[in-house]
Structures are given as C-alpha cells and as structure tokens.
Queue: 2 jobs
Job 1
Amino acid sequence: MEEPQASGAMGRSTLATYVYPTYGDLPVAAIDTGLVLKALEPIWTTKPETAGRVRGRMEAVLDWAKARGYRDGENPARWRGHLDKLLPNRRKVRSVRNHPAMPYSDLPVFMAALRSRQSVSARALEFTILTAARTGEVIGAKLSEVDLDNVVWTVPADRMKAGKEHRVPLSPRAVEIVRELPRDGDYVFPGGRAGKPLSNMALLELMRGDAARVRSSRVPVDVSGLGCRADEPPERGCRAGAGARDREQGRGRLQAG
C-alpha cells in the first residue's frame, strides 16, 4: 500500500504498525472495505484513539491514490455513511484513560540514574525529557536540525504531529548531549544499523529495565519517564509529567519562535 510523502513520520509509523502487516505488498487498488476492517477491528475497541488516527490516515492515503489515478470508486476507509454503519462510535467504546506520569519532584533521582547509563538510548530518553518532545521527534532528529550556536532545535513540519515547524530552545545539558554523541551519519541519535536512527524498541527496552530499578528505589511510581509507560511503546512521547509541571506552575510548553 503506497502512501503520500505528506503523511509525515508519525503517519508512516502508525501505518507500518497497524496496516502494512495486514496489507503487505497489495496494490492500493485492491484495498476494499473488508481489508480496511481487517486492519481496524483488532484495535477499534482496545485502542480507540489510535484506531481513529489510523482510519483517518488510511482514508487520506486512499483519497490521494484515487486523485493520482491509482484506484477508482468510493473510499472504503471513509467514516460518514460507510464505516459508521459497520463500527461502533469510538466515543462509546470506552473512556480514555491517560497514562500515569512521574511526579516532576522525583525527576532528580530518575535523571541521575539515567545519566549513569552509557548508551545512545539513555541519551535519547534524557534529551526527550529535557525538551518535552515526542519520542518520534527525538529519534528522528537530524544533525542539520540542531543549531548549536543559537542553541535551538528546529523540527520540520513534516515530522510534527500538527504539521507545523517547531523550534525548541536547548538547555546546556541538551547541547552537551548533542555534542558528546558520536557523529555517525545524519541522525543525532544513531541506531545500530549504518545510516539509520535509533529505534523505538531501543527506548522501550531501556525503559523496561529502568522501570524495575525505579520501582525498587524511593520513587514510588510504575512509570519510567515523564508519562512513558514501561509496558507500552513510547510512541506518545514523554510529555505528561512536563505538562503537569507546567500546569502547576502556570505556564505552557516552553518553545521559541
């Protein structure tokens, strides 16, 4: 199933996780309602928010394919007048429960433990916390996006959930992390394969290990990072704790420009 480049990194990630394993190398013209349901039904009641985003991205890809002449007919992923007759309304499936977040007052203990870990994934998680960014934005960060002279990281629009360029001021420690990492290709946080960034799985494995250590320390929480659960992929980012801190202190998310 082909997709437009404009779908962005996050769109490609969700399609790769929930759609491609079902569709494989099928041509986009072969996608019908049955295949759409095959991809959506396993997550429609268990992950309704994610399922809604996946459906919307499938609809956008199929609309693009029709406009390009790759397929004909109605869009099998459209909601109104079609899938709304076949799937329950997501709002009625279950209430949304936000991930728990580590109290920011406990961060000094956690950050000290994290800084003792000598790995690219540890530095990536630390950078994620320092910038309150989404994990997808961090692991996909390129050296060309980071201006160390002006201490700012500019995330391009095609890698942002909102589709708008985002400028993040960098703390001295965030700058230090970028400077100390090996220069191996285009990415700030290189992965195990040449020319590839760090994977989400590397962060997940790190958090699973650190969660056990955090639980055995004085930090009484079952999470490992700012809202990052150790039992789920960190695709939503380590942001909940930062949001709680900002709400308590009466300010919004720090950003420049």
Note: The longest helix spans residues 48-67.
Job 2
Amino acid sequence: MPISAPEITVESIIQTGFAKLLASNAGYADTNWTITLVGAVGSGTSSTSFTIPAVGASTTLVTQTGLSFTAAQTVLISSANNPYKSFQGTITSYNSGTGNLVVACVYNIGALYQLPLIFTDFPIAYINETISYLQDPDFKANTYFSYYFDPAQMPAFNIVLANEAESPSDRQMYLNDRVESAAQIPNTQPNESFGSDWTCSVTVIIRTEKMRQCIVLYNILKWMFLKNRQTFEAAGIKTTRFSGSDIMYSSQDAPTFIFNRKIQVDCRIYNTVDYPVTGPTATTITSVVASFPSEVTDLDIENEVLGSAGTTGPLA
C-alpha cells in the first residue's frame, strides 16, 4: 500500500455516490419485481416482463390478489435482481380480483430505491421533497478541497484535512520484511516495504440554502460513508469512525442564509515506501540492524537459519 490520501477517497465516494443515486433507470427490463407502498404498509411481487417507463408514462403488471392497494397511492417498484433499478409511481388502478395493477411513473432515478430506506422514519413529505431536490437539473454535488465555496453554486461539500500525524504509540513499523534477504536466501520479491501508521481526521462541511436540504444531504452522506467502509479499507484507510455536528447557519451572505453541517471521518492510514532488496542500493535486514546502536546485533547466517542462540553479540 503506497501513500494514503483519505481526502481524495472521500471526494470519490461523494461524487460516485451521487452519480449512482441520480442515474436514470428508464429502459431497464426485467421479469422479477417487488412492489412496496410508500408511506403505508403493503407490498407485493410480480413476474410480469416490462421495461421501466419514462417519467409520465404508465405500465401494467400483474401482482397478487387481495392486496391493500388503492388508486392514488404511491408505490416503489424495484427489480429483485438489481435493486438499484427501480421507479416510483402513482397507482392508477388495481383490480383486487385479478391482481392487475396500472402504475404511472413519477420518478425513475436510482435514488428512489435508496431514499425511502435511508429515510424510513422521515415524514413522506421529506422523501418527496428530497427526490424533487435531487432530480432538479441544476442539482450538482460541488466538492472543494478547502473552505472556499461559491454561494451561487449550492450545495457545496468542503473537504478539509483537519489533521494527520504519525501515531506516537506505534512509531515506525516495517511491513512485509524479507527476512530471508538477510541470510542471502533467494527472494522472489523485488522490494521490501517500509511504512508508518498515521492518525487522521477529515471533515466534510455540507452547505445548502435551505435547512431541510442540509438535513437530508447530511444523512445521505452519512449513509454513503457507512456503505463504503470497504472502499476506505481498500484505500488503506483503517478503523474509520464517523461523527457529526448539528446544523448551523452563516449570515455573512445576508440576506441569503447559508446552512451548514459537518460530518467527520477519524481513521488510521498506512503510508509505505518500497526499497529494492537486490542490487547496489538494496536495503536488507542486516543493513537496517547495522545502523542501530551496538547493543542491537543481527544473528549470523547459520543461526538465523537454524534458529539457535546468536554468537555475534548481545540482543536488545
């Protein structure tokens, strides 16, 4: 693992996450669907083959009979094979005796599958308002690596490296040491990795024009971070811990108030550097130990292999 840059990983998660949430699902075809009422209790399934319609268009499918579906209710229809492929619509009609269901598509962006799950305990007004906000053609997740933001371009996500430092408890450590190189045993690896463990904090400041926008974007971002813990791990960002702050507002741009809320990522990162183990510039365990005080010595080749007591001097 080379040098880790958590602030860049955070920006990637924000940009990629919103791109997936806002991707249109129109034209996706399947034969295995789940149907869930939004804002009410009730669900069903369907094996009808159809394509997710464009906004404003309708589709007809067959589901179970005797369900608690009525006209004008809102439903979320998702592919059971690919839950990111879904759409939200309004029930035009439902025949309780035959199971025929007609739904008019209202939204078909990927966020529609996720948002009702993220905001399960939120009022339906928040969900609908959030969907409309995200679907606005002018919506863009603007990210900045500083405190700067343009009040004319909202929302803004300011990514700030609050602090980072080499961990005082662990000091320097050696990763993937090629111990056999000290005994001059053939090594299949071309280098040896030296690294150190760092503590780090990255803060994301979410800025919006409206309070509700700030609340929902904060919770979406919190969900994205939790969902992407493996992404952090793969980038060498370990033991992530998330925390946040309440909403605040700034009046320096009066009469326009700017609302902001912070979410912080505390983590540990591994920064490593590779050294060659062959050739004139090779770094081996022997050369590392040789640079230490005389109280620390290396076993001779024979004893390193056999594991017997050292004969070249005292060990620390």
Note: Confidence is low (pLDDT under 50) at residues 177-182, 301-316.
